[in-house]
Amino acid sequence: MKKNKTKAIFIIPNLMPGGAERVMSFLAKNLNSSDFETTLLVLGHEANTAYDIMGVNVIFLNKTRVLTAIPNLILHLLKEKPQIIMSSIDHLNVSMGMISPIFTRIVFVGRQASVSKASSDYQAKSTNKFFSILRKWALRKLNYIVCQSYDMYLDCKQEYQIPENKLKIIHNPITENFSVKHNEPIDKNRVTQFITVGRLAIIKGHLRILNVLSNIKYPFVYTIIGSGPEKDSIKKSVDTLNLTSKVKFVDFTNDVERYLRESDFYLQGSFAEGFPNALLESCAVGTPVIVFDAPGGTREIVEDGVNGFIAKNEKEYLQHLNNLEHFDPKTVSNSVYSKFDKSIILEDYKSFFLSITKSK
């Protein structure tokens, strides 16, 4: 007898470069096809696609804003009648919570992307109190919320009063099959290579990394990959700290893996994170990390002394940089693959999705 598959629709505003976009397209493409019939529903335009969606059933609504896409989205759900809808990105999750009462037979799952309480101190303050109230109400209307980290789980409980039975921790997967770099001991006569990958924003803490690096006496090159609103401020700080000859900017590249493999250490300065994919990928290729202790998934990735170091402040961060230790690349890589390999995370999603459809 033919097995009835669970119909799941993954909804995302667009497929431009980003962690949520990567994970959602990955799930739509790789979730077990014998159990699930998946669709990736993109509210935006196909021209903005940054990820491989070959073999995925993708529908583009070609809208520029979530709000204008809602009528078409509702019509699509009425037609397709999926068992599960999973959305990601805050404003889309709010929209899904708002329309969920229309579809009582569908399980609505939101994927949180940040620790709201910790992130709010480093983002533009919203004067719209109505939306803050609406967000809290709408998120509680979702049937379940997937949290990428334990800190995110606590944030949902405390900030939005989401009941524990509606929260599920599922980490981001290592979506690629990275090859581990060669095991080469630290050579003090060679220029040390540092790297950071990510959006150039205040919350990412580039400036405090630069402050620490300005106190380093040995030769190094620091590569910053990414773009964002703080680019000019970061470049100005590089000049002020006399680091111009030591800092290299790369706006965008499809070859991040090579940069990570060729680096000696990955540096993370974030004040808060969701679940830092670039940090995870650095460990995956065998490049150890030095990070600041911060809310989010960082502490679930970094094992102090195994794949890198966690610093409490700039003084401690500088101490680690001044006393660089050799890490075996295979050990660093195994530390994350043992927990976040895509097969493990896909199995977590499979079990979760099957359990919530049975209980509906």
UniProtKB/TrEMBL annotation:
SUPFAM superfamilies, alphabetized: UDP-Glycosyltransferase/glycogen phosphorylase
Gene3D superfamilies cross-referenced by the UniProt entry: Glycogen Phosphorylase B (3.40.50.2000)
Chain ranges of the Glycosyl transferase family domain: 191-324
Pfam families: Glyco_transf_4, Glycos_transf_1
Domain Glycosyltransferase subfamily 4-like N-terminal: 17-174
This protein's name: Glycosyltransferase involved in cell wall bisynthesis
